[in-house]
Amino acid sequence: MGSNPTLSARSFREKSTVAFRPPLLRPSAFTSELRTVNTVAMAHAHKIDRVQKVNLKEIDTDPPKGMTKEEALAETQKLASEMEELLDLLFFAGQHSLLLVLQGMDTSGKDGTIRHFLNYTHAQSCRVASFKVPTAHELAHDFLWRIHQQAPGKGEIAVFNRSHYEDVLVVRVHELVPKDVWHGRYAQINTFESLLTASNTIVLKFFLHISKKEQEERLLDREKEVEKAWKLSVGDWKEREQWSRYQEAYEDAIGKCASAEAPWHVVPADHKWYRNLAVTEAIVHALRPYKKTWLKDLTEVGEKAKAELSAFRSGKP
């Protein structure tokens, strides 16, 4: 479904760090916090947090009428500053991990979304994993084997540029395995994501929703602009012929693999500035409920460190 070039290290904004000791994990806190997350209303992305029938044609790919680019950029900047603080707290507290799953048709803006996100993340805490055509070695294992290896650890952030969902999308559309195989993967994906969330991974999944017309314009733009010529691929046009089948596959993947703990967010993505606003807002709303817990635990760590330092200076054991 198109190429996914490795992002340059220059995309990461370097920030200074200090040594820290992750506090002890409190499993009981995670469940209660998740309930809080699920009560937050989304203003820009369409949040789907339960199994249901999804009809993408009913979800607009454009911003709401009356929303201007200037307003969206201002709101995005405000939210992004808050997101930066929350991501730093996640890193230093070391209690939870964050997994962002990005899916979408070719030209939907996955790379652009990643570039936006990386402007506000801690260089040491975040990494991007791109899942292309499986290698022979990867195909010798179950379809989740290569995915699980890239899951983030405590205090880490992982961004999946495409993901395990390719095995119920491209595999389904191109009939690479029998129907009973890919159909059975919905339940396997749900079990896998339940394992991640039970281990304190905050899972947010984004479908970057663009119109067929917008995709055509973006593909044609690649032919016109020299700096985008490296993105040209006849495969993108071939995959476009399967648009309806991909839309159906996405509707099933989103509808069958949505839960309160690992929700999907359908993001209107015909306009990049609105896409970035919707994604940023969704991340901030998901992380806000953890802020007090992270600050409390970091305060306890700091008080303990100060006590140890005081004891050292006074000569006490």
What features would you highlight for this structure?
single chain, 317 residues, alpha/beta, Rossmann fold, 6 strands, disordered N terminus
Description of the structure:
There is one protein chain. This protein is of the alpha/beta class and 317 residues long. It has twelve helices and six strands. It has a single domain, classed as P-loop containing nucleotide triphosphate hydrolases (Rossmann fold, 3-Layer(aba) Sandwich). A six-stranded mixed beta sheet has the order 1-6-5-2-4-3, with helices on both faces. The longest helix is centred in the N-terminal third of the chain and has 25 residues. The radius of gyration is 21 Å and the shape is globular. The N terminus is likely disordered.
List the helices and strands and how they pair.
Layout: H1 27-38, E1 46-48, H2 69-93, E2 97-104, H3 110-118, E3 126-130, H4 136-139, H5 145-148, E4 157-161, H6 170-173, H7 179-198, E5 201-209, H8 212-224, H9 234-240, H10 243-256, E6 264-268, H11 272-287, H12 291-314
Parallel strand pairs: 2-4, 2-5, 3-4, 5-6
Antiparallel strand pairs: 1-6
Helix pairs in contact: 2-11, 2-12, 3-11
Tally of discrete structural domains: 1
Overall helicity: 40-55%
Q: Mean pLDDT score, rounded? A: 87
Task: Write out the CATH superfamily name.
Answer: P-loop containing nucleotide triphosphate hydrolases
The separation of the N and C termini measures 62 Å
CATH architecture: 3-Layer(aba) Sandwich
- Give the CA-based shape: globular
| Helix run count | 12
Q: CATH topology, what is it called?
A: Rossmann fold
Strand order in space, largest sheet: 1-6-5-2-4-3
The proportion of strand residues reads: 5-15%
Determine the structural class based on helices, strands and strand pairing. alpha/beta
- CA gyration radius, whole angstroms: 21 Å
Q: Which regions have little confidence, pLDDT < 50, spanning 5+ residues? A: 1-41
Order of helices and strands: HEHEHEHHEHHEHHHEHH
CATH class: Alpha Beta
**Topology, number of strands:** 6
Taking the sheet with the most strands, its summary is: 6 strands, mixed
